[in-house]
Amino acid sequence: MANLRAGLIGLGMMGRHHARVLKEIDGVDLVAVADSFGDPHGVAGGVPLLSSVEELIAQGLDMAVVAVPTGLHEEVGLALAEAGVHTLVEKPIAASVPAGERLVEAFDAKGLVGAVGHIERFNPALQSLRARIEAGELGDVYQIATRRQGPFPARIADVGVVKDLGTHDIDLTAWLAQSPFATIYAQTTTRSGRPHEDMVVATGRLEGGVITNHLVNWLSPMKERITIVTGEKGAFVADTVTADLTFFENGTVATQWESMAAFRGVSEGNVTRLAIAKPEPLRTEHEAFRDAILGIRNDVVTMREGLATLRVAEACLESAATGSTVELSA
């Protein structure tokens, strides 16, 4: 069987990594790349460097990756859908819910694989964590809390931190719990002088009853990517920078120091850093996209799922603007 002919549009900070992986994975040939600003990271190599999605489509593509600024996702995505090209769009799916809806409708109408690059689902620590939750290792899940903080990114951001970074946490939380958001309440602030919010604190409840908390910002001098899932048997802590997963078990040994026992509630048990394989998440994401096109498996983040995540992100911004909790319809 011939390799899939792939194109990439957008050669910025994420585009350069997509180009590398597209050149590495089996069953895919990167036949052309495109960016109206050229190739700042020199990733084109021996493939044609083009300037528009129309020129890219003319190369005869089976699949494409879209890594342009968020405001261009709809325009580029619709052109690829019209041309019958399976497409992976970087997150978030689009700059607004109506734009995301148009993308979902366009790819569904053509029967194409439309995926969104919520890469955290392919982080080995979170994949292992989800499997362990599903297997009952934590018992009932009570809470999922995330911290995603760091300095301002070098890349251009045409959306605020909620849609750019916060969508990672919205998506991974609903995916880990296998339950959509029911409510969300958020507070934001803007401290960097840019037009969009650069810090958010959000709390929510999933339809399954799990409560959530999310701290996301571009204002911290340290980089942190932590997910904590607490349940009846203890807590899992996933660090998605290092792909480490640690289990803090509720103890079975009685604490004899009365005042400390009362203070701590559940007693401390064993702490286990779990040994897991650590493939590169971006490569795993691309392999899933390739296999979805070939009909081998279907574990991509669909455009419909990406749209649901964007709805929650917009609800966060609505909540921050109104000071009220926003209920999300099922």
Give a short synopsis of this structure:
The chain contains nine helices and 15 strands.
Descriptive overview:
- The chain has 330 residues and is α/β, with parallel strands linked by helices.
- The protein is built from 9 helices and 15 strands.
- The chain folds into 2 domains: 4-112, Rossmann fold; 120-278 and 310-327, Dihydrodipicolinate Reductase, domain 2 (2-Layer Sandwich).
- 33% of the residues lie in helices and 28% in strands.
- A hairpin with a 4-residue loop joins strand 12 and strand 13 (244-250).
- The model has no long low-confidence stretch (mean pLDDT 94).
Write the layout of secondary structure elements.
Blueprint: E1 4-9, H1 15-24, E2 28-34, E3 49-50, H2 53-57, E4 63-66, H3 73-82, E5 86-90, H4 97-110, E6 114-117, H5 124-134, E7 141-149, H6 161-177, E8 181-189, E9 199-206, E10 211-217, E11 224-231, E12 234-239, E13 244-250, H7 258-264, E14 268-274, H8 281-294, H9 303-322, E15 326-327
Helix pairs in contact: 3-4, 4-9, 5-6, 6-9
Averaging pLDDT over every residue, what do you get? 94
Order of SSEs, N→C?
EHEEHEHEHEHEHEEEEEEHEHHE
The strands making up the biggest β-sheet line up spatially as: 14-13-12-11-7-10-9-8-15
Shape: globular
First and last CA, distance = 42 Å
Main structural class: alpha/beta
User: How many domains make up the coordinates?
Assistant: 2
Full CATH superfamily name of the largest domain: Dihydrodipicolinate Reductase, domain 2
CATH overall fold name of the largest domain: Dihydrodipicolinate Reductase, domain 2
Characterize the main sheet.
Answer: 9 strands, mixed
- Rg over CA atoms: 21 Å
Number of E-state strands: 15
Strand content: 25-35%
Unreliable runs? none
